[in-house]
Amino acid sequence: MKFLKQFLIFSGLNGEEFSQIEQIAIKRKYQPRVFVFMEGEEREAVFFVKSGLVKTYKIDEEGNEQVISLLQSGDMFPHVGFFDRSPYPATAEAVQETELIVIRIDDFNELLMKYPEMTMKVMQIMGKKILDLQERIQGFISKDVQHRLTHALKKLADEHGVKKGEGIYINLRITNQDFANMVGTSRETINRTLNEMKKKKLLSSDRSGIMIHDQEWLNGCE
């Protein structure tokens, strides 16, 4: 349960309250490309990423995959919908071998009713995610592909980056197709845009992740 104590929604709980969390928490392991849940399925649980990587995405009317987020250790999902039984809003799929802590919605809601402070913290998380979604939508409407890709890189660096020398390393195995899905364009366009960035020595990549060499350029992304 030491892992769960890092989450904001549990930070105010005492030892006795945490013992109740322990009674309803379940560990599950997923292999790469295995679905955690699919869009439209009945919402049954809240998931906490202990290790590995989970991708959440939606499929548009043309059958294209639109990546919503990449979740790794310390992330919780879904971020909204604890108080109703609406279906899962997106599909969640393990990208690599992943271990999740799972808490059923019914059990979780019972705790929220029992401990009002948990309800307030969950609402704060929901508000932050809604603002993040609004920001992404605005970016899609008004910005070109290069700006959207830079914004996506900055978001990944903020959430998953590790300081390395004078740069920052995004320690995620993410493909050009994943980037294309995230920013709403083709893989060919992403290939060209990334190659231009590499020629300018703004970044480089290997099989494990992406190295950002120019943080000032990245931080300048609005």
Automatic annotation (TrEMBL):
Keywords: Activator, DNA-binding, Transcription, Transcription regulation. Signal peptide: none annotated. Residues 9-129 form the Cyclic nucleotide-binding domain. The keyword Transcription regulation applies. InterPro entries: cNMP-bd_dom, cNMP-bd_dom_sf, Env_Response_Regulators, HTH_CRP, RmlC-like_jellyroll, WH-like_DNA-bd_sf, WH_DNA-bd_sf. GO terms for cellular component: cytosol. It holds the Pfam family cNMP_binding. The keyword S-adenosyl-L-methionine does not apply. GO terms for molecular function: DNA binding; DNA-binding transcription factor activity. Residues 143-216 form the HTH crp-type domain. This is Crp/Fnr family transcriptional regulator.
